[in-house]
Specification:
single chain; three-stranded parallel sheet; 3 strands
């Protein structure tokens, strides 16, 4: 599990992982509309923000555009402070 893997790390301030979609940690959904798959966030309460090439009309979550690296970094920084472990 992700929790087991993180237990093997030395002390760190932030861990960024890809995958582990069904775990219960806070997640940023990365979505590219051209892939044609639906967003996961409506059905996963652990998704706390979205990074995508298109802003979802009905999403009330924090959003950053995929092409805006600085906005994504700021979003991750804000979330890391909001969800300390």
């Amino acid at each position: 599990t992700l929790r087991d893997l993180v237990a093997h790390l030395s002390a760190v301030d932030l861990v960024i992982v890809e995958g582990f979609k069904t775990d219960t940690h806070a997640k940023v959904e990365v979505h590219r509309s051209s892939v044609g798959k639906p967003l996961l966030h409506p059905n996963d309460p652990n998704i706390v923000a979205i990074a995508s090439d298109v802003r979802p009309a009905d999403a009330r979550l924090p959003f950053a555009h995929l092409d805006d690296i600085e906005a994504i970094a700021d979003l991750v920084d804000e979330l890391a402070r909001a969800y300390p472990r």
